[in-house]
Design a protein that fits this description.
CATH architecture of the largest domain: Up-down Bundle
Low-confidence stretches: 1-5, 667-689
Distance between the termini: 99 Å
Largest sheet: 10 strands, mixed
Helix content: 55-70%
Oligomer: single chain
Strand content: 5-15%
Structural class: alpha/beta
Number of domains: 4
Mean pLDDT: 81
Number of strands: 10
CATH topology of the largest domain: Na+/H+ antiporter like fold
Number of helices: 25
């Protein structure tokens, strides 16, 4: 045994904690035991009630509290808000059950079996009703956080904790004043309502401004942490638990931290690597097994433990039957809602200090915490494995062995990050998706080589931040377009992402010569992006779809890409299209089960879409589905589309998508004009331009004579 005096210094204390965080999962994974239990048991062993290697001092109190807040923040941050709304009714039912069944059963057993008075029984009933999502990391590790049982459990947790706090406040008021004070309870409800409205109103507006102003990932992470602890602090001021404040902050910041973003990866990494394990170890250090060996304590602890487990199993069982979740879903639901830690400790400590609870009840509660913290991850892991397999089977049913290979053209480091983030947010997570970043240079100077290396390095770092591999391609070719075209067949590219050209003079075209040449020479899907705001601050995606777009080869591909982008951003998407196209877009989204908020506006032409420009906000993202000449959806309006965009949407974030089409790739015919096309293509382009000039002349004459 290591003497306590040897581990009172910060460095050895931190080393022992890190060693526990490192070794506990490695050892317990071989035994098929959730690592959460290992953290808690390790805390018991090294804590003051074990071998007294580490003292449960202020450092563990601080880091443990931070870890609990971090755990609840991640729970709110990782929720799929769309599916949460879909399961809100089921979650409300479960929340009512998991609040009132433990509350009622706890009051009855406390009064009839333990012979306690009504006020003390109310306090214990509230302790049984409240629970902590301590096994949520197990659900996150199995990637089932967006499943129905987890979402139902989260809604139920909110209701159970808030209801328990109201009951605790009532019990304390009765004990202090000698009677029930409805005015105090009404004032508490009023403060909670005002606090919630203030957080929901202020946080999104402040976050959108901050993310637009400061793009550094470290700065954004620190900003998010400030909001989390501010919400937790103000929640305590109004009479709530800090964990609820952290959870609400996670819900509000949910849409600003997409799952595939580097900011989310950094947030999860810091929490899972340090703060959450610190919290689990601190929970173990508070448990004293020596106090439960007495006969009286064991008897009371057995009664309390039976009530705690049964009262949480009944709501999970009833909800499983009503919603047909299956046995794995029921196990996950029970595992997530059966652990008692923070609120239980707060309740018994408060009751003990006020003379409402005896030392026997206090020690029995510690045993309840120990057993429920051990049982919760076991049941969660047992159900999560089967639930994950069923989710994979559902994805396999809609998977069609599709493979996406995205080529991102990075001309400079400033544009590289935004283009790569766009590609990552549109990533196909139900099939193979490979990413390539290309930089083409036609000179061998040191400046050109440095620019190429910096651009590709920025792209690779952006993808590596979310653990997605990206291959950098440095080409020496005639020009940028030729280099991209030569890379398409080499990597079997399915879509190309490029930045939008900035006009340098009046006679310059909207897309620029390079993009126009690229569109003529390839039939792959081309995505042209110009975003003035960070993608995670987008409030709506507005899509203009031409008539006949459903007949193009790449129709379903761009619909799936926009659906994935919408799901990552958590915003709404509005399709402005003809009535004939709407059922097919809706069919692709629903068949793929993306679960996004999509709306439709019937428009028969681009002119009607232009009329909507007055209702578009600076935080909206405009997406225009265009078409190449000689394609099915190509019309005269498509020809005028670039000039319409330049006149009406010059200051808005814009993405133009040219869908994939059948046809042979254009062959490069000469070195003098590397992008020269065949005669038919040139004639078609010339004819299109002539018709555009005739229409412009006709419009000018009509305006003149009128």
């Amino acid at each position: 045994m290591v003497p306590a005096a040897l581990v009172t210094q910060p460095i050895p204390i931190f080393f022992i904690v890190l060693a526990i965080i490192l070794l506990a999962p490695l050892l317990l994974n071989r035994l098929k035991i959730p690592h959460i239990i290992g953290m808690i048991v390790a805390g018991m062993i090294v804590g003051p009630y074990g071998f007294d290697i580490l003292q449960d001092d202020s450092s563990f109190a601080i880091f443990g509290q931070v870890g609990l807040l971090y755990l609840m923040f991640l729970a709110g941050l990782e929720i799929d808000m769309y599916h949460l709304r879909l399961n809100l009714r089921r979650g409300l039912l479960f929340g009512i059950l998991t609040l009132f069944i433990p509350l009622g059963l706890g009051i009855l057993t406390s009064m009839l079996v333990l012979r306690l008075d009504l006020t003390t029984s109310l306090l214990l009933g509230a302790m049984y009703a409240a629970h902590t999502l301590i096994s949520y990391p197990v659900a996150a590790r199995y990637e089932i956080t967006k499943s129905q049982p987890v979402l139902i459990a989260i809604v139920g947790t909110i209701i159970a904790v808030v209801g328990s706090l109201l009951v605790i406040a009532s019990a304390v008021t009765i004990k202090r004043d000698g009677y029930f004070n409805p005015v105090a309870l009404a004032w508490l409800l009023c403060k909670i309502t005002l606090w919630t409205v203030a957080i929901v109103w202020a946080y999104p507006r402040l976050t959108r401004w901050f993310f637009k102003t400061y793009s550094d990932r470290v700065t954004q992470y620190v900003y998010c942490m400030c909001l989390v602890f501010l919400a937790a602090w103000t929640a305590q001021i109004v009479g709530l638990e800090g964990v609820l404040g952290a959870f609400v902050a996670g819900l509000v910041l949910n849409r600003f931290v997409p799952a595939a973003s580097p900011l989310m990866a950094s947030t999860e990494f810091v929490g899972n690597a340090l703060f959450i394990p610190y919290f689990l170890i601190s929970v173990g250090m508070m448990i004293n097994l020596r106090v439960v060996v007495h006969t009286d304590t064991l008897t009371v602890a057995g009664i309390m433990l039976g009530v705690a487990l049964v009262s949480k199993w009944i709501p999970a069982f009833v909800t499983e039957r009503i919603n047909k979740l299956g046995r794995p879903g029921g196990r996950v639901l029970f595992g997530l809602t059966t652990a008692h830690t923070a609120v239980a400790l707060a309740v018994v400590t408060l009751g003990y200090k006020m003379g409402m609870l005896s030392e026997v009840v206090l020690n029995s509660t510690i045993l309840v915490i120990l057993v429920t913290c051990a049982v919760a991850p076991i049941f969660t892991a047992a159900g999560a494995a089967s639930l994950r397999i069923s989710m994979l089977d559902q994805d396999e049913m809609i998977r069609t062995n599709r493979t996406n290979n995205t080529l991102i053209a990075v001309a400079n480091p400033l544009m590289a990050r935004g283009l790569v983030e766009l590609g990552l947010l549109m990533r196909n997570d139900r099939g193979a998706h490979r990413f390539y970043a290309i930089h083409v240079r036609n000179e061998n100077s040191r400046a050109a080589r440095n620019l190429s290396h910096e651009s590709l390095e920025t792209a690779e770092k952006t993808a590596a931040a979310v653990n997605i591999p990206l291959t950098g391609i440095e080409r020496f070719d005639l020009n940028t377009v030729t280099g991209i075209l030569n890379a398409l067949p080499e990597r079997d590219i399915t879509e190309v992402i490029v930045g939008m050209h900035r006009r340098s003079n009046v006679i310059d075209s909207f897309f620029g010569k390079k993009v126009e040449q690229l569109l003529k020479a390839t039939n792959r899907m081309v995505i042209i992006s110009r975003c003035y705001i960070p993608l995670n601050t987008v409030s709506r995606i507005i899509v203009a779809v031409p008539r006949g777009a459903q007949y193009e080869t790449g129709f379903s591909r761009w619909v799936r890409g926009l659906a994935r982008l919408t799901r990552q951003l958590g915003c709404r998407i509005i399709f402005c299209c003809h009535a004939d196209v709407q059922p097919l877009i809706r069919g692709v989204i629903y068949h793929e089960n993306y679960g996004i908020r999509c709306e439709f506006r019937t428009t028969d032409s681009y002119d009607e879409f232009i009329l909507l420009s007055g209702r578009i906000n600076p935080d909206d993202l405009m997406v225009v589905i265009s078409a190449r000449p000689n394609s099915v959806s190509y019309t005269e309006e498509v020809t005028e589309m670039p000039s319409l965009l330049q006149r009406n949407f010059a200051g808005f974030s814009l993405i133009v998508i040219y869908p994939e089409q059948f046809g042979e790739e254009v062959t490069l015919t000469s070195f003098s004009d590397p992008m020269a096309a065949d005669l038919s293509t040139a004639q078609s382009a010339l004819t299109t331009r002539l018709w555009a000039l005739l229409r412009s002349a006709r419009a000018l004459l009509n305006r003149w004579f009128s």
